[in-house]
Amino acid sequence: MFHYTVDTTKNLEQTIADLQENLKEEKFGVLWQLDMKDKLNEKGVDFDQPYHILEVCNPVEAKRVLSQNSLVGYFLPCKIAVYEEEGTTRIGMPRPTALIGLIENEEMLGVAKDIENRLIAVIDKTR
To answer: What's residue 103's pLDDT?
Structure first.
């Protein structure tokens, strides 16, 4: 499956705050956060769905994978989406293994699996 997505009973703001704290435990930081609803409305596009995209990075892991294969930078930083859909808050991400699989490198796939497992654990803890 391309993505990992879970539902939570928390509201959007609390989910994002908890996610940021849980990411720190795995040494991931939020580099940037995009509020799609605000940005699209700012550009004159009517969009009412609360939808946030967080770009997250563990600098040690980023250096490790970029040192092995520069193409991996095409997938960095990792993205985690937090959004509301049909009254439910969802947390999801594209699976790093699905993305890394595109460059066909078994060694990198192992690293991606480790990152994926750690991010899934963060998402599960946040829910």
So the answer is: 86
